[in-house]
Predict the structure.
Amino acid sequence: MTSLRRSPEKIRLPLGFSFSAVAAGIKVSGRPDLALVETAGGASAAALFTKNRVVAAPVVVGRAALRSTGGRVRAVVVNSGNANCATGPAGIQACERVCREAGNLLGVPAAEVFPSSTGIIGVRLPVEKILKKLPELVNLSARSPNQRGVRAFARAIMTTDTRPKIASARFRVGSQAVTVLGIAKGAGMIHPQLATLLVYLFTDVGATARELKRLLREACDHSLNCMSIDGDTSTNDTVLLLASGASGARVRDVRTRKNFSAALNAVCQSLAEQIVTDGEGVQHVIRLFVEQARSREEAMQVARTIAHSMLVKTAWAGADPNWGRILAAVGRCGLPIDPSRVQIFIGSQKVCRNGIANEFNERQAHRDLAQPVCDVRVQLGRGRQSVRFLTTDLTAEYVRINADYST
């Protein structure tokens, strides 16, 4: 049973970005909670945001800023410990003040400062604490990339995460090296569409905002949108891709675009795996394969129904090979699936054949499910499309974390 990826020891750094972080006193713990990314030469930008109808102030401000600048970003300011959501006009004004002051300190327009927040919903943003620390945050930015700054940024954006989430990839096109770096946070309220998921992707390839948007959407569809911890979609979900162009390579070149797409997909997949592995209270990660569907959308519908079933997730928590719960979830997914054509595998064993029990070694299935990572495969017998979906069990520890979150 192979394990999922963890944050690497060595980080590949793209040209054109600098990182810093400080403690502003937003978190009761006193840990770093304010972070900055600066790109002195500016960067093309594309973003995907939460599909929740309740959206946080930084999502509103950031989305509007990208529209007004045509996808141009000079800096990203992120705070953790407070979501600045459900805070009314005051929340929007506070977010705009942070962008305006950061812009003044950096000598750039406020619209080119992209904001993000993560933390408790419904609590006013302590904007004065943030404004007080912005000068220190800007001064710490060395205007050159460094691994220490990247790790500090990754830690400062954490909330219930137990570890930072970082991934990077590099490829060459002739004499030019192109790097992709990803930093993420997320451990609960994870069901992208997107999830208290924040993901920042940095590259030194050259690209327009439109080119980046297409490549970002493709990468997310097969990674960050193919995972779920608890079925909840956050109010603050943001995935931001910035391209400095400092490498000299351009995605309009067919070979560069192909290699960049592969690198971006690999980084997003690694971040997705790190997020799921660090899920709140998670003991077991399930790699759920739904196969033989008529369309990818159909496979996703089945995968999400299984992944969000409380009965299925609690069975996985106990390493109980109760395949009947999986079959029942398939049957209520809303599609006209014929149960007599469904096959289910746990690990390498077929536990359900044509919708009825298949003889299998229950002890071995229990041992497979008891591993940190286990494969579960569902074949629908309807077509040739499939999806790989990362999900988890549901434990008492998850309940404890979220029962105490705001207190």
In short: Confidence is low (pLDDT under 50) at residues 189-196.
